[in-house]
Amino acid sequence: MNAVGTGAPLAERARAAIPGGVNSGQRSVPGITDLVVARAEGARFFDTEGRAYTDYHAAFGPQLLGHNDPDVSAAVAAVIREVDLCGVGVTPGEIELAERLIELVPSFEQVLLTSTGSEATFHALRLSRAVTGRRLVVKFQGCYHGWHDAVSLNVISAEDALNRPDPISAGILPEVLESTVVLPFNDAEAVRRLFADHGDQIAGVIVEPVPHNIGCVLPTDEFLITLREQTTQHGAILIFDEVITGFRHALGGWQEISGITPDLTTLGKAFANGFPLGAIGGRADLMQQFSSRPGGSAFFAGTYNGAPVVVAAALATLTKLTEQPVHEHTFRLGELARAGLREVFAELDLPAVVTGYGSIFVSYFMPGPAPRTYSDLLANRADLFVGYRRKLIERGIFELPLNLKRSHISYAHTESDIEQLIDGTRDAVRAALSETTELGAGASTMGGLVRES
Ligand SMILES: Cc1ncc(COP(=O)(O)O)c(C=O)c1O
User: Fold this and answer.
1) In whole angstroms, what is the distance from residue 242 CA to residue 240 CA?
2) Which residues contact residue 251 at a Cβ distance below 8 angstroms, ignoring those fewer than 6 apart?
3) % helix / strand / coil in the chain, to the nearest 5?
4) What are 44-79's pLDDT values in tens digits?
5) Is 269 assigned a catalytic role?
6) Fewer CB atoms < 10 Å away: N or C end of the chain?
């Protein structure tokens, strides 16, 4: 029983009934306290006060086609009239989706569906341990792979928490944290050294091939090649977590772009355009170890796996991604945005690195060159990164005001949206600069640093 009545403002009712008033720790954003979203369409969402926001947050990335894409919605509406979840056997949609994924993603010989990216990465790591009989897994500082214990460490760490286990949650057993080795991203030498010393204990290596949970840090060829070579040489499983890069950067993900084929790949976000879907796929000899095959030793389950509504959304999304110039459009707007933002920061004489890939962009407030590893990002001015985004929101443009978060362009955004983004950014940065200068800041504050998406 709570004391807030149904006549109270919605946000207040939310806080009374839901811890923090939102359904994810990642939606608990300082400065955004009373946002109740009423509607979303195309490149925009609308709050219950009638305000419109041009959306570059895109719910942390799924809506590559834009909100409420009409073709995806129509496919969902059609399937709802035919079949819902039966929890036995398989539906024709699941078969078609699996076959299409295998055609598109280079590492996929077989694939299983989950409801979220976290489940997919969980299963990938457990399978790695099941098939190798080894204990250790490896992740990289700055990469996020979901909320489960084995990967809940060293995402956005403060400087003094680098080079030691830095859990993002209380309640994780120390022995679990100790079983995950964290290395710096793009450090091929550190990978070689770890394998030389402990190669026979490493079950798997999981990596965001482009760590987008800290904006955008592009991998060197040497780094990805080394991961492939060392895991192969030492019998460990290489897992590409393509929950963000999959479909958004190319239909075959970063593995298609880089030419490096992992053993297992996890997917999520963009392939169902906002419907809850994840996938794990890869080498058939590994996938055959899941318990969906009788006798498979790695237990695999999930009441909602392959739910027809979500599968229909994915099939419609893949059809549109394949048949329409989605990548051409979003990549062109991405280039326009990055070029325009670079000009703005040059005009303002502000040290900034505008980077990204394709439809993703991010502006770090630090001198160049573009970051290659997490510790490079400690030079970013978090006060300005968050501050200008708060000012942008006042101007009806939504980039998430959390340090190091990336922004996304969808098929529904237009050139005129990007022009507004560039003009809005100029105004917002000016306004934020005048406030940080008034505060005598100038220096980097680490406020909001310990966050991940
Ligand atoms: C790279 C990556 N992997 C895994 C996940 C977890 O996915 P989900 O939030 O669907 O559980 C995320 C979520 O942001 C992600 O960015």
Assistant:
1) 6
2) 104, 321, 322, 327
3) 45, 15, 40
4) 999 999 999 999 999 999 999 999 999 999 999 999
5) yes
6) N
Distance 144 CA to ligand 1 centre (A): 7
In a domain, 10, yes or no: no
**Active-site residue, selected from the candidate residues 53, 55, 139, 144:** 144
pLDDT of residue 446: 33
- Rounded to whole angstroms, the Cα distance separating 127 from 56 reads 35
Q: Please report whether residue 215 resides in a domain.
A: yes
* In a shared domain, residues 319 and 329: no
Mean pLDDT of 18-25: 96
Ligand 1 centroid vs 106 CA: distance in angstroms? 21
Q: Where are the beta strands (DSSP E) in 260-402?
A: 264-267, 278-282, 353-357, 360-364, 397-398
Q: Are residues 99 and 114 in the same domain?
A: yes
> Across the chain, which distance is largest between two alpha carbons, in Å?
67
Co-location of 369 and 232 in the same domain: no
Q: Is a pLDDT exceeding 70 seen at residue 1?
A: no
Range of the domain at 154: 70-323
- What distance in angstroms lies between residue 170's CA and the mean position of ligand 1's atoms? 19
361 and 223, same structural domain?
no
Which tens digit of pLDDT belongs to each residue from 293-316? Answer: 999 999 999 999 999 999 999 999
Residues 295, 367 within the same domain = no
Nearest CA to ligand 1 atom 14: 453
Q: Which of 266, 299, 323 is the last residue of a domain?
A: 323
> Over the stretch 178-224, which tens digit does the pLDDT of each residue have?
999 999 999 999 999 999 999 999 999 999 999 999 999 999 999 99
Number of domains in the chain: 2
Q: Is residue 19 part of a domain?
A: no
Predicted pLDDT of residue 444? 36
